[in-house]
Amino acid sequence: MSSHRLTREQKGKGAVSSRDSAENPDSIHHEAMMDTGNMDLAQRLLVSEAREQFRGDDDGQEAVDISTVPISYYPGNIFAEESPLEVWRIRPSVVDGQDWSNVEKTKSTVESVEAILRDLNAHGVSFIIPKQDQRPWSPPKGYQCIYESYFRNDTKLWFPIPRIVTAYAFRRGVALSQLMNGSLRLMVVLSVIAAEAGTSMSVRSFEELTSVSISDDGLVSTRMRPNYNVVTGYPTKTSDWQRSYFYVKSNRSAFEEPPKSGYRVLWNAEMVGHPNLATYPEDWRESARIVALQKQDHWEDFTRERIQRSVDRIANRKFPLPFYVSE
Fold it and tell me: Is the pTM of this model over 0.70?
């Protein structure tokens, strides 16, 4: 983990100790560390050190699990440990009905996740490495499980995770961690194509262009419908794509639309299929038609640079969220 320590002279005269008396020091610490406009690196490091002192002096905090400590990535290439999670946030590792085959302990490490966040400039994202007995369906309350492979070259997702991803899992009635790479990959390419064509890729438009199935292993696979196959050359297989997973805090640094407390984390053996009727107030057919009429593209042409050019347009395209399926 990166560590920055500065002398008092380097830190300057910025006083932040008064912040320690706030009701929610973790939130203030997070906001201060993200405030590159009003605070320089030295001042933000001073905030971080002040938070450490507050943590050690506080005798009135709730019971915490000292073995579950989130790590956050902040501007200035700072990785900072946050306060240990409260005990009430910890979910049991063993749950009835959650004995899925082919799911092993994570291979993710602090270093591997930090490398992803650094590469994606994912400032403000907080993560936890699951313990040996934890699985994708047992993240702490307020966290979601995601795979490292979602952000690597076979999928190319980004932070904050676009709302189509969380809304689609909601609409299927499944956990986010049940989505296979191919499903995320299609969301990436179709969202980029839609943004480049001046339209939006809503959940309903995505459903119109794709088909979906769920395996006996509980994994959700999404494919382009044959008549709408506007992109070719996808990777045929991503080896060990689900072996490395981690928990990420549900905040706006990690998600465009942060999952609320009712968002499903337990895996579901059943799935809500794509609808056949137009149930949305938007003109979803038109946006689906625009995307389907684009010239055929190739996966290798979807570089990080090309995707990044469309990220803001994708985020700014507001579309109605679906009827959410509760856990």
Answer: yes
